[in-house]
Queue: 4 jobs
Job 1
Amino acid sequence: MRGSRFKWHWYFLAALFLLLSFDEFATVHEKISAVLTSKFHNTGLLYFAWAAPAGVISLLGLTAFIPLIRSFAPRLAILMVLSAVLFLGGAVGFEMVGGSIAEAEGTESFRYRMLTNIEEGLEMAGVLTFAYVLLSYMEGVAATSAPDYASMRRESSLLTRGR
């Protein structure tokens, strides 16, 4: 990564995942939603007020990562986009659908709980797919940039023989 033209992309992704992890246990997005709900009357897909702005911000942010994604091998680039679709589809898409069901049936209903499980499953599938992409990328980088110790030993022995 040193000297990489995508260094700041990687730093941003690291910070983003740190914030997402913090949000998962601190439920910041629910608190934001409560503040927005107190100011606006949200219904249907916008029942959870944080989801729509988060979706728009996510799509805009994703466009900033197009150069990074295109720098990957085609298979890994497709998997990286798939990881974003899975994660955002769960976190934002299913959250919005769940909001309309929560409004109509409450958060204790069977349908809402099923959607919540699907939502969490999609988020986990997105993170796991992303981790697979990163590990595959690192494996490829290590394979192409690892020192060739055998040739280094040969060169070293040739240099010491010439003395």
Note: Residues 7-161 form one domain.
Job 2
Amino acid sequence: MISIIYIILSIPLKLKNYLKISIGLSIAPFLFFKFLNNLDKMKNRSRLEIIAMILETVGDNGAIQAKIMYKVYLSFLQMKEYLSNLMKNDLIIYDDGAQIYKMTEKGRRFLILYKQMTESITMTKPIL
């Protein structure tokens, strides 16, 4: 154990920096592909798709604003706009005591209908 510490301490500074960079470069492709995977989720989403993602995030247990914002990939202003529209249409409610958003029965029905609609669309054959 002491010999390993001695070897690490005796490594020249340039080599230590190189090791940090090489370790960083080995992690970089993983992070890049994770970012690309998330881009597919964010690419050209419709308003209905975003609303469904918000309702899925809120679910039965509820969610705070930060969780909704990060899971649905929205800016703070976009999230506030969607949440206010969802509350106006009674799809979600805000629980002041717990400080979370909860889905209403109307929101659950919307989410079920949205999933049925998307499933039926994906099962049909393309026209072209």
Note: The chain has six helices and two strands.
Job 3
Amino acid sequence: MAVRLLCSALAGLLAGGLFAGLTLLLGPAAAQIPPDLAKITALVMIEDRGCPYCVRFDAEARESYVNSPEGKLAPLLRYRRGDPAIAFLARVVYSPTFVLLVDGQEVARSTGYMGAELFWMEIARLMQASGLKTNG
């Protein structure tokens, strides 16, 4: 186990530099929350280049989310997987992953995008899990 963790950290050093390697070795808690994310409430979308589900999200649900009460309460922020700005988050495996931050802390997440109807069900679950309430 320790050898595998060390190998992952070394691979992180080679692939993403010192910050990525240390995050893999020490875990997300070792990474500092960037000041611009430290005090906000937001829905962070983590995506990969060429992700067909991300393209589908853009076509089907992005605009309605951005203009919704939920989108006003937790604005959508987009990052590519591996971006050092989101290294403080727990590991992201699938794209897209939606992470709800409240005061810069992850409170809930949803993995994948399978259509607008399921997306809105997940948003309701995330909002309920976080205790956030909309006026809508």
Note: DSSP finds four helices and four strands in the chain.
Job 4
Amino acid sequence: MPRVPLDSVVEGAVLAEPVLDPMGRLLVPAGEVLTSAVLASLRRRGIPDVALAGPAAAAPVADLAALELLARRTPEGTARWERLAREASRWGEDPRMQVLREAVLRHTLPPAP
């Protein structure tokens, strides 16, 4: 399972593997949904990276603006982006929904030329 730098992990991501301290003690179990408090604790403990489950394990994108630029490369991508943006506006600001929104947008982007 590829590892993602902790600084690239967003709140709401799900761990694919447990996080252990240097002594082998369990810090966070696999399957745990990461909160801002858990991420802050892992940073304080010097954990450099984690293995994530599902779409959140994809290469990180800086923000939704970067995804929009990728999507708008083609007329089809622009139409998809506008439809998804309307739909996503109803999802609110829940961090778990932000992760889901990013995964949906990644999935629906047209392939790179």
Note: The longest helix spans residues 75-88.
